[in-house]
Amino acid sequence: MASTPTAAPREAALAALKASDRKLARLIHATKSDDPTAWRSSRPVGDAFSVLVASIIGQQISGFAARAIAGRLQERFGGRMPSPAELLTLDPAALKTVGLSRMKIDYLRSLAEHIISGEFAIDRLHELADDQVREQITAIKGLGRWTADMFLLINLERPDILPIGDLGIRSAVQRLYQLDHLPSPSEVDAIGEKWRPNRSLASFYLWAWNRQMTAVRPKGARPMVSR
Q1: CA 193 to CA 170: how far, in whole Å?
Q2: Helices 167-176 and 199-216 sit at what angle, rounded to 10 degrees?
Q3: pTM across the whole model
Q4: Catalytic-role residue among 106, 123, 166, 180
């Protein structure tokens, strides 16, 4: 796992981002803090399996509901997330009692089965290139590009990750470039090419700026992005 950048490399990365894109440079100057530490603290932490289990549990539900379901699952294993083998010892009916849908139970079991069979090299993800990590994660039913990108960015702390499917990133790019539409993931990818090899830092600033701009939007004003 990559370590958190020291002050000198971070300043160099910021300088490179500002030089690559004048609009992004203005965003960086206008943003109070990118605060990657606070963002990381809001994401699931722990071993890779536990993180991916939490990611599956949290799909399409509130953070409060996800934490409640994860807590009930952990209670069955002494307050911790189960191992892949332990997860498979629970039949689907038992998993349903903690609040999991049938679809999420299927996803969790698929994840555990892929690890036990050796198809998913979960203990070697930190050794793999970014695209290899994406390939490994997205091969699991229920885990897509967004989950893979967030795992790379937050859990492996890779320096050049742009979560192109994230709504916050897409909203920030729309606002930054004054687009008349919410950009597609492929459009965000094309726009972000100029930010290589520091797209992770750019992502943190885009998130922070988007939150900052949303917070100051006048009451009653129409949102720039439709839901």
Answers
A1: 14
A2: 80
A3: 0.86
A4: 166
Confirm whether 166 is a catalytic residue: yes
* 164-204 pLDDT tens trace: 999 999 999 999 999 999 999 999 999 999 999 999 999 99
CA distances from 13 to 34, 71, 218 (A): 13, 39, 33
**Domains located in the chain, CATH noted:** 7-30+159-216 (1.10.1670.40), 48-155 (1.10.340.30)
Q: Residue written as tokens 């470039």?
A: 177
pLDDT in tens, 202-214: 999 999 999 888 8
N- to C-terminal Cα separation, the chain: 35
Q: What is the DSSP string of 72-120?
A: HHHHTTTTSPPPHHHHHHS-HHHHHTTT--HHHHHHHHHHHHHHHHTSS
